[in-house]
Amino acid sequence: MTNCDTNMWNPLSFLSLSAKEADLDTAKVVLVPVPYDSTTTYKTGTRDGPLELLRASAHLEDFDHELGIDVAAIGIHTTPFLEPVLNSPQAMIDRVRKTVQPFIEQKKIVGLLGGDHTITLGSIQAYRALYPNLSVLYFDAHGDLRDSYMGSKWGHANVARRISEICPVVEVGVRSISKEEAEFIEKSNVHVFFMNSVDPKPPSHLDVLAALSSPKVYISVDLDCLDPSLMPAVGTPEPGGLSWSQLMGLIEAIGKERDIVGFDVVELSPDLGPFSCSFTAAKLAYKLIAYATLTNSYE
Ligand SMILES: [Mn+2]
């Protein structure tokens, strides 16, 4: 929420920041809303995710009492919504890559607001081109490690598999995989921290840090990594999953020990849950922004 000294209200700008507060030249963080859900295989609606996340963000407090910082003062620029390409997921991934790349070259931390998980691949392709030593921390209930699914190699069920072909991936929160994925994990170097149904503890911060092979980390959060009692507004919910504090604990540890160079928050499907889900997604983006800028040397 802005301090209202300008009496201006921009609902399509994260935290409803005014044009001056959200100026691209001085912004450290660029948010790109991507209302794309063309590869969704069950419940659609993630196309409405970015708008509802941004609307909810207007009601967050600018001051983060845990870090003692004014998040609005970090400099957060929200771009206009990226128009979906409907003819193929690969064309959409390419559009995301081309959109993100110039911002990375300007040393901005780019956050995608999805949209289905497919969009992550475009951002990671752009980051990987500039950071050969990038590693990806992938929060998800699902492995997303199928080579192909429903005839496509480029849908939301294959995202982590495609990422693993270009850089190291560490998955957290996983509690649903196919036999093919289980066999792939055995022989691949993808590090998967599963959530156990009976004793659903997250992995320790130290274990996750040890699994991340480089200091530059991209964090992708599929909101279905969270317990669906907290986050029902996703297309393919899975029982169990991370609590809010468990997810925050991991992100805090990564933010303090590594450079979070980019991130995304994907799969919010607002019509499938109470409106608190949009607030949770907005607060998650807010915390990712805060921790990404906390220690980011960006060299
Ligand atoms: Mn998922």
Overview of this protein structure:
The protein is of the alpha/beta class. The protein has a single domain (14-294), classed as Ureohydrolase domain (Arginase, Chain A, 3-Layer(aba) Sandwich), CATH 3.40.800.10. It has eight helices and ten strands. The strands form two sheets. The protein has an eight-stranded parallel sheet with strand order 4-1-5-10-9-6-7-8, with helices on both faces. It has a two-stranded antiparallel ribbon with strand order 2-3. Helix 1 packs across helix 8 (276-294) and helix 6 packs across helix 7. It is globular. The two termini are 31 Å apart. Manganese (II) ion binds at residues 140-142, 222, 224, 236. Manganese (II) ion (MN) binds at residues 140-142, 222, 224, 236.
